[in-house]
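ligand=aspartic acid
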Amino acid sequence: MKNSVTYVLILMCVMMNLTPSSAQSNSKPKYVLAIHGGAGTILKKNMTDSLEKAYIAKLTESLQAGYDQIKQGKSSLDAIEAAIHVMEDSPLFNAGKGAVFTNQGKNELDAAIMDGSNLKAGAVAGVTNIKNPISAARAVMDKSEHVMMIGKGAEEFAQNNGIQIVDPSYFWTKQRWEGLQRALERDKDRAELDHDDKKAFLPPYKDEKFGTVGCVALDKQGNLAAGTSTGGMTNKKFGRVGDAPIIGAGTYANNATVAISCTGWGEFFIRSVAAFNVSAKMQYAKMGVAKASQEVIDEIGKLGGDGGMIAIDKNGEVAMPFNTEGMYRGTVTADGKITVEIYK
Ligand code: ASP
């Protein structure tokens, strides 16, 4: 009986020109794009209705902007730039306009982009006057022979290549300024408690570091790409740079495996080589995207770090694991269906 059922199933698959496994994957939606707007202590009880609506609207707008590019047959890189611009231009996210403040009261932005079709990549770090750092990262990839540029040099390169420059005051927002004041207050409290002069190495406060943005995409040509943009962590000191602009840590894409963008406590993502680690688990240990990305987040958790990531593989499977209370995130399927989520 069991044999004959199996036989009928196989026959049906053959008649429909499907293998049993492709029959299974065809029943699932095939994704073309995923975004995140940061992971952290994001709890429904701390959210007002209007703020929640504002996040959902902006995440939806970002997904739609990216999807429009994919639909028109543009590259996954174009989709990433379009989706990330929407979030960089919004004060809601810790990237572009809404970037957090450094200890010295400045905004220092980082971004990276990677093309999975040829493993080309571009990144900028510690820039203070580039409106859309993701576009500067793309210019580094497309118009220079380098992968990463920092500070003044990156700003000069961006300006020479037609990237929009703004006065640093453009990045000032009340919400982020107050976030820095709270962090400075707590630094003072801790200084009183701590006399071993190692204060520079104290971990940052968990609740002041979410809102980085990222996007991963798979275009009609089958090319994967990933991009991440951030203001880093509130109260960062000494030119600190996190994982976002570091290829293989916060951002990675390879057509053979997966495209990844991370968010969270950057130091742990750098130490875990998080984004590349997912790709390596898929390539060498033959894991699926869900297991590989979850394992990396679990490993980061064991080290004491927190955060999340978005991943899309070459077959359009998406995974979005995180070990924080929430992560702003969303997906679009090939037929344009948008889904947005915030909490666990
Ligand atoms: N990963 C970013 C950084 O460490 C921050 C974040 O994603 O919230 O700079």
